[in-house]
């Protein structure tokens, strides 16, 4: 319930802020101050947070797996300082930075100092500007303070740059180092993001593997029993069912087993739906960017909805591995919709994104009875 509500909190804050600003303007708030409120709120949400994260994440042992900006079709992809980077066609409010923690000295103290400084700088800058005698800076300060309140609430359980890190983490020994990774695990994750599975597996074998990275590689290789075991291990290590990364791997492992013939497609929908609910995916509209929801639509004999969701996800920015999986889901939905030629095109795209993905062969086998019947 809390996770479900948290997804709506940013929109609630924006709506409340818009109403308050409108009422303030009606009560003779100067135009420059109102404009400053909007500017401060927009800057304080993502650009300021992104800049602070980039400047400080290495101080507390953070390493980026990848970076992406925008949505829709990929305009550019490459690597910056060893980090895979993608830019999308449609702009968004901020960057997406998947990341993990490496073992460092005094990690909790580092995270605490970075988080305190982040809130202190944000609050101090906002308060200083709000107390300014001029109209535009005062508005920017008020907008920064409002965005700080939204950030504090919506990132309440984040391990870095959150009120949780400031007030709760110091009293929970080991809470930050529980998921500490090795440098080779970070490199393995970066290879997986690029869709280079064999290189990811090779890099993973150099050191103690990170559970989620190992589970993703096992899923990509079609080792579904191993992927399922590792996802269960991630739950046991403290990941909550609402953790989208664990939920994604666990659900797509089930889908992979269906496509590989290990589970009956006729019963897949009835099995997957309660499974997704248990993982925290309660609402199909909130899960529209969650690939297993497209598979649920396919299993529930709604291939057109599955095609729409999977097509959108096959064009998203971020990871070649995830796009390849989405292309396979699109192909499977197109087969169910009686469109085998389009399904072959989707599989060709999946192979370009991630040539070694085991699921491609499983979905191709689904085409064989369709083509034999033609």
Helix content: 55-70%
User: H/E element string?
Assistant: HHHEEEEHHHHHHHHHHHHHH
Rg computed from alpha carbons, rounded to a whole number of angstroms: 23 Å
CATH architecture label of the largest domain: Alpha Horseshoe
**The CATH topology of the largest domain, please?**
Serine Threonine Protein Phosphatase 5, Tetratricopeptide repeat
Counted up, domains total 2
Strand content: 5-15%
Low-confidence stretches: none
Q: Quickly count the helices.
A: 17
The first-to-last residue Cα distance is 49 Å
Number of strand elements:
4
Rounded average pLDDT: 84
- Globally, the shape reads globular
By secondary-structure content and strand pairing, the structural class works out as mainly alpha
Taking the sheet with the most strands, its summary is: 2 strands, antiparallel
The top level CATH class name of the largest domain: Mainly Alpha
In short:
The chain is mainly alpha-helical and 374 residues long.
Descriptive notes:
The protein has 374 residues and is mainly alpha-helical. The chain has two domains: 137 residues, no CATH class; 192 residues, Serine Threonine Protein Phosphatase 5, Tetratricopeptide repeat, CATH 1.25.40. It is 64% helix and 9% strand. The strands form two sheets. A two-stranded antiparallel sheet has the order 1-4. Strands 2-3 form a two-stranded antiparallel sheet. Strand 2 and strand 3 form a beta hairpin. Helix 13 packs antiparallel against helix 14, helix 15 packs antiparallel against helix 16 and helix 15 runs parallel beside helix 17. The longest helix has 25 residues. The mean pLDDT is 84.
């Amino acid at each position: 319930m809390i996770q479900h509500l948290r997804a709506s909190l940013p929109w609630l804050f924006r709506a409340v802020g818009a109403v308050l600003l409108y009422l303030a303007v009606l009560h003779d708030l100067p135009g420059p101050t109102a404009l400053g409120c909007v500017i401060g709120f927009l800057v304080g949400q993502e650009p300021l947070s992104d800049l602070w994260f980039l400047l400080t994440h290495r101080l507390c042992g953070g390493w980026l797996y990848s970076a992406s900006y925008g949505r829709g079709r990929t305009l550019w992809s490459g690597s910056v300082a060893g980090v895979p980077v993608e830019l999308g066609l449609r702009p968004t409010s901020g960057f997406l930075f998947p990341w993990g923690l490496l073992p460092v000295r005094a990690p909790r103290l580092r995270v605490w100092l970075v988080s305190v400084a982040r809130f202190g700088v944000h609050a101090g800058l906002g308060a200083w500007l709000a107390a300014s005698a001029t109209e535009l800076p005062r508005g920017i300060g008020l907008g920064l303070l409002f965005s700080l309140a939204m950030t504090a609430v919506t990132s309440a359980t984040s391990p870095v740059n959150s009120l949780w890190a400031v007030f709760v983490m110091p009293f929970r020994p080991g809470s930050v180092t529980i998921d500490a990774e090795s440098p080779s695990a970070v490199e393995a994750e970066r290879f997986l993001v690029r869709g280079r599975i064999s290189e990811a597996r090779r890099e993973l074998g150099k050191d103690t593997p990170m559970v989620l990275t190992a589970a993703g590689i096992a899923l990509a290789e079609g080792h579904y029993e191993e992927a399922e075991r590792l996802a269960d291990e991630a739950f046991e290590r403290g990941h909550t069912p609402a953790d989208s990364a664990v939920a994604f791997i666990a659900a797509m492992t089930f889908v992979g087993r269906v496509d590989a013939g290990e589970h009956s497609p006729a019963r897949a929908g009835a099995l997957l739906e309660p499974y997704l609910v248990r993982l925290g995916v309660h609402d199909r509209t909130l899960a529209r960017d969650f690939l297993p929801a497209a598979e649920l639509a396919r299993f529930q004999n709604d291939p057109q909805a599955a095609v729409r969701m999977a097509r959108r996800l096959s064009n998203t920015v971020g990871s070649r591995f995830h796009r390849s999986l989405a292309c396979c889901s699109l192909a499977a939905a197109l087969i169910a919709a009686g469109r085998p030629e389009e399904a072959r095109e989707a599989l060709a795209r999946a192979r370009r994104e991630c040539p070694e993905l085991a699921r491609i062969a499983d979905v191709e086998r689904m085409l064989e009875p369709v083509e034999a019947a033609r």
